[in-house]
Amino acid sequence: MRFSRLEHHAYEATARKSAAILRRQKRERDALPLFADLVASEQLPVDVEHEQRRQRWESYHLQERARRVRDWRRARSELRNFPSPERERLTWYWNHHRWFPAVPSYLLSALHMYREGRLNLDAPGMTQPRAPRPVSETANA
């Protein structure tokens, strides 16, 4: 079954991100000039901000990976519930239609569309490669 791996990119504290944090903090202080000292005392240092962002980033990736695993398991379970001939046709459709991103939400969507009657695997070219058109037909087109 075709699938794409979830790539993991570590959070990287860059000069641009640091500058953005400093601009945001200045904007917050400037928004309340009478309380600028109070606002400044509640703002975190840039390195602490980066560490919090890194932790949120890692937490998000763990949650996203767990969600994708759950969705893949659900999709494969739903696919197994179809009778063998339908399951084979649906699997062929999924593996050979490369314009779909190989993510579980698209497979779940295709299965849902099939169950609802909005995906017709009997349409020409849906479950078998189309035969190339003869040269004589393409020349006249």
State the gist of this model.
This protein has six helices and no strands. With 141 residues, it is mainly α. The protein starts with 14 loop residues before the first helix and ends with a helix.
What does this structure look like?
- The chain has six helices and no strands.
- The longest helix has 35 residues, at 46-80.
- Helices cover 65% and strands 0% of the residues.
- The chain has helices at residues 15-31, 36-42, 46-80, 84-96, 104-116, 135-140.
- The two termini are 37 Å apart.
- It is mainly alpha-helical and 141 residues long.
Mind sketching the topology for me?
Blueprint: H1 15-31, H2 36-42, H3 46-80, H4 84-96, H5 104-116, H6 135-140
Helix pairs in contact: 1-2, 1-3, 3-5
Low-confidence parts: none
Question: N- to C-terminal separation?
Answer: 37 Å
Helices and strands, in order, run as: HHHHHH
The multimeric state of the shown protein is single chain
Question: Helical amount among residues, as a percent range?
Answer: 55-70%
Strand content: under 5%
Main sheet summary: none
Radius of gyration: 26 Å
